[in-house]
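Justification of computing resources. Each target in the renewal requires a structure prediction run like the one illustrated here; the chain below, 127 residues long, is used simply to show the kind of job we budget for.
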Amino acid sequence: MNIQINAIKFKADSKLEKFVTDKVTKLERSFDNITSCEVSLKVEKPESDNNKIVEIQLVLPGQTLFNSKQADSFEEATLAAVDATKNQLSKYKEKFNKKNGDLKSDLYEIGKDIETENEIEEEVEEI
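Resulting structure tokens:
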């Protein structure tokens, strides 16, 4: 997955970028067909509380997921945005598997059909 981090109107330090990258990379555990991810870090009004905004845009096959969270720190906002994106990703994965067929269940059905055919062939040979 290609991850791009954009800090808007400020310079993000390497610790923050590493934190965001580590958390966003964990999304690949939920779904491995993620094409790219763009994370935007913004400071709304520097003098106010709850002014850090993290936006995550996740590009998937045929779909783009977007989440925006606001908190007192970028770390809190990142965790909230990643959690919300993970929920969206699991819903997308369910729809994706229904649309394209769940490979495991398809293979199971094929295996059952082969067993049934083998049993029929054995019975025919006995007769």
